[in-house]
Amino acid sequence: MNEKYEQKRKRIDDTIALKKPDHVPIFLPQSYLPARTEGITLKEAHYDVDAWVRANKNFVLKYDPDMYFFIEAPINGAGQVHDILGTLAMKWPGGTLPDDVPFQFVEGEYMLQGEYDHFLDDPSDFLLRVFTPRVFKNLEGFSKLPPLKNLALGCYGTPVYGMAMAAPEVVESIERLMEMSKHALNFTVKSGQLYAELAAEGHICAANAPVLHPFDIISDMLRGMRGTMLDMFQVPDKLISAMEKLYPLSLGGAIGAAQATGNNQIFIPLHRGADGFMSPKQFEQFYWPYLKKLIEDLVNANLVPMPFFEGTYEQRIDYLQDLPAGKCIGWFDRSDLNLLKEKLGDIMCVAAGMPASLLQTGTVESVRKQTKEAVNTFEGKGFIMTSSTVIDEAKPELLQAWIDATREFSSQ
Amino acid sequence: MLEPLSRAIADLELEKAASLVNEYVDKRFNAVDIIESCRIGVELVGKRYQAGEYYLADLVMSEAIFKELMEIIEPHLVKVVDHEQQNLAPHVLIGTIQGDIHDLGKSIVIYLLRSSGFIVRDLGVDVSIEDFVKEAKSSSAPIIGICFLLTNCVSTVKELIDTLEKEGIRNNATVVIGGYAADEATRNYVGADYSATTTANVIPLFESIIKLNEVNRDR
């Protein structure tokens, strides 16, 4: 890699190892913002991969952060992919939303509480034949497939599958998947090229794939927030068994993504573990053991976990002190910076500092003041300057003032 | 009121609460009294939530208990008490702003407010500025709640509040913004009176607004 890349890498690695770098690294989680700076609509961001790649490239070259965010973050698969599949669990600009409205998940109970037994008995069978047709209306044909356990019949089972595969709905669903794959591949190839081009010019992508906590997979995708919260009271053992089934998927997905992309930093957006969602007792039973294990297993695989602690984690912060020291990047949304420094200063590198709203609604003076306070809190050590969450909207002059101020105050 | 029932709900004991409701129904207790005891139970849950003893999961569980109990009681009710059906003037008009379809936080806020006796008119999600203004004018609600999770919606929220001002509605209505993106910097920018990024302090906030409005009116 080139000198600029190595310089940034060392700055970040020193920070992760809790050493003092030459200056505080700045991580710019750009999300939809490049669409704004490039003057393209959010529909174009979702449907025109070349325009989206160009927008991100220009953005990263202009602002030159120490780390930028993966460009799939707000897109979640090209718009064409979701048109073809008839995605129901998400709405997206230019598809099921107006052209300039950001994508939004449609949370629901796509798995009913009474279906845990099917899921636990055979997750793949449940996910393919029951869950998938519910979240992709154009894949309804898969509900016509026979139970996957029939595959155990080997050559004796071919008549069973032969009949099922001849059904027009099944044929159509398979054709949709094949059609979709061209767009998905196109997006992946072009984003991969962008990452390589940017690396050649000295830029580092913070992480290339998100990995979810098993509780969040169940809560976000299968049962919905309401569903999982009831499950903690009503069917706790089944919820835990389902997490056990999903855990290898989370870990394996992270390791596989790291190998495929060559990026050893693993982004883990955490949703329901934040303060307020569940009681401390429930956190100890349902969330913390899997979060701790996920982080430790990733560290043992020589990867750098980058959990995003969305919301506040002030009630949970003592748990985080049990994590291996100097091995991960904790990206914090709204937790108090002084508390983070006090409790985690010797444990993990903290990425935080700038409320995303201030970049949209503040002034150059307020942004500089906030930046100075954050840098001073951490005394330039074990700290990555970033925004409280991904940035969809920001005033360009505030963004530049923030970056300049970070370098200015942390180099003093 | 039927205190053991309220207590069972407050303690999130579904089986005990359901057994008590069945017992009261069998003994031909007044169904409205049973419902009121359920409401008191839910209100206690809200208070425990507010005090930090309960969490969002406890609220969700109490809502599920309440729904299940209502299913037992409803066949014995002569007429369902529903403020919306009664067409009473709302204390609170609430909706998620145009461009945002999230309603989880809003639903929790509405549940908490209704359990504390507030009359709430829910405008739904993706509510246009025109609809907000029209409803605000026709209902004269003293509190207008604007929900949004997305930072992209900030400019629309500002436009709505500016329009409320221009239309003269702002003088008689307190504007509260709520949701993930509704922090203090955003509140300042859009010109709302109050903001809340979590549901934890919703009841005391809304109660204090109503009290303040009463004091101002009496002056």
Question: Could you provide a short overview of the structure?
Answer:
The complex is a heterodimer of chains A (412) and B (219). Helices cover 54% and strands 8% of the residues of chain A.
Overview of the molecule:
The complex is a heterodimer of chains A (412) and B (219). With 412 residues, chain A is of the alpha/beta class. Chain A has helices at residues 3-16, 33-38, 42-47, 49-63, 79-85, 116-121, 123-135, 158-165, 168-200, 214-234, 236-261, 280-300, 317-320, 337-344, 358-361, 364-378, 396-411, and strands at residues 27-28, 67-68, 90-91, 104-105, 265-270, 304-309, 329-332, 349-354, 383-387. The model of chain A has no long low-confidence stretch (mean pLDDT 96). Chain B has 219 residues and is of the alpha/beta class. Chain B folds into 2 domains: 3-76, Methyltransferase, Methionine Synthase (B12-binding Domains), Chain A, domain 1, CATH 1.10.1240; 86-218, Cobalamin-binding domain (Rossmann fold). Chain B has helices at residues 3-10, 14-26, 31-50, 56-73, 83-86, 104-115, 129-139, 154-166, 184-190, 202-218; strands at residues 92-96, 120-122, 143-147, 174-178, 194-196. In chain B, 46% of the residues are buried.
